[in-house]
Fold this protein.
Amino acid sequence: MKSKRFLSGGTLEDRVFDTFNILFMLGLVVVMLYPFANTIAVSLNESLDTIRGGIGIWPRAFTLANFRTVLSRVEIYHAAIISVQRTVLSTLVGVLTALMVAYPLSRKDFVFKKPVSMMFLFTMYVSGGLIPVYFLMRSLGLLNNFWVYVIPGMTSAFNIMITRSYINQLPDSFVESAKIDGAGEFRILFTIIFPLVLPVLAVVALFIAVGNWNSWFDTFLFAPGRQELSTLQFELQKVLQAASQQITAPDFTRGGMQEGSAGIVTPTAIRATMTIVATLPVLFVYPFLQKYFVKGLTLGGVKG
Amino acid sequence: MNGSTSVVLSENKASGFEKASTFKTFKTFLKRLNVQKALVLMCAPFVLHILVFNYIPIWGWIMAFQEFRPHLGISGSEFVGFRQFTTLFQDDLFILVLRNTLAMSSLNLIFGFLSAILLAILLNELGNKIFKKLVQTISYLPYFVSWVVVANLVISSLSPSDGIINRVLLALGIIEESVLFMGVPEYFWGIIVASNIWKNVGWNSIIYLSAMSGIDPELYQAASIDGAGRLRRIWHITLPGIMPIVSVLLIMNLGWILNAGFEQQLLLSNPLNMRVSEVIDIYVLRYGISMGRFSLATAAGVFRSIVSIIMLLSANALAKRLGSDRII
């Protein structure tokens, strides 16, 4: 009876189709969630016990020792702070940028509307490439510098375009009546437009925040030399690299055990625990804000 | 004679008018500029920003035609014409990474599209809205985690000692003993495509689902009154309904044919699979940053960008000819 609510009834074909569809979806859910669940279970399981194998989605010998070991390492703790700092700063700067470029471009009579739009659009399709960018960063003194995380990625043509499409949907009368009242453009933008475009700014903020939190390649390329600039994702990458290089060696799980504050912890457990630490913030944020993402994607579909 | 002078005269007249009107438009332009100076001021710093961070690197393409030495700079380095490009195409390793890039990006393109369309269709057929929403939300969870995390999950899942894939295959009796998936070059492209699908399929299906929600429900009702079953309705109504967006996205993605992504390859490569895992970006990284052959690496990057631009422009022209919206 219960499954009847799922099935729409009707012909035999409908029933067969619906049954297979629901089974497929359940399979999909398992495939999407199992790797996460398994990693969580390993991170909460005693690491020597994990070597025995067979951990599924539930820890067999529950412990917080892996987390204690990982979080007590100074470099991890410090990398987490850098990750948070770069994410917060980039998001603030990026949202402000999107707003301040999108507003002039949304005005139909703006003198440089065409050339400025073209300049930004062009950057979506053509980039200078790795080596010229590397030398640019070097000559600007941004190598091994915290600001390499914030300044180069400040403007994003995509974010500007979706913000502009959103402003374009607002009725012109808002701006017109404010002008009649004698308000300047900066005041119109920050007191009238800003509160009205908060939904799209939420989308932009989320894109930037997730992108920054997940980024590791910029550390790899521009700041590999300074441990104090390392991010969580980069630390995780280092652990992964070590595991990946040893993957062909037999018994690689046993190599390089670490004496943690709570006894011996294996590299496998460290890797699982760090994966969870680096993923948790995103996991927490995304179900609440997913509707904004979807909205952003549909806005992005609006041509620039 | 008479006729030709009158033509000249009228031409003079016309250019005179033009002059007057250009002057007039210039004047109104200045006037508008004065009125809008706050708007100009507002975006000027960011225009300057992209000039520095996006356009100066393009100017750096000059390096591809030089034997660039960092201490001499672009202005001091020797020009060598197309020598870097000839070296590039005589390098067996470059041909290899070009092949790898093309193979992985085409596989990603084909299977990425098919999987997203299939998922969107099946989600669209779910009757229960709450169940649909739940599955959809879970399906795009992996999109939001980093490639580093995904690479970790891939390596754990494929681990020969305790990975879920080996466990399932052993339990089903498909394999006799554990397989070292990451060590077999033949499996690498498949692993890349599968992990790409796993990470992106949910997210990519959103756009098709939103296109499906725009299909007139009366079409479905009319079809079922005519006796069309589920599969036939999908085939004759849903698929044609999303075809415009599919074709636009497909041509748009052709511009990225030399971008196979590089994070996953970089993160999942190991000494055993190097010959199939290296893509153009990794080549650039290796030759440029690690080995100091900056000009050769830049040439590889320039080649890639030029191909992308050509692909994009022809795709755009093609889209225009096919009557769908232009992309740019």
In short: Chain A touches chain B through 98 residues (CB under 8 Å). The first strand of chain A starts at residue 258 and ends at 260. The two ends of chain A are 50 Å apart (CA to CA).
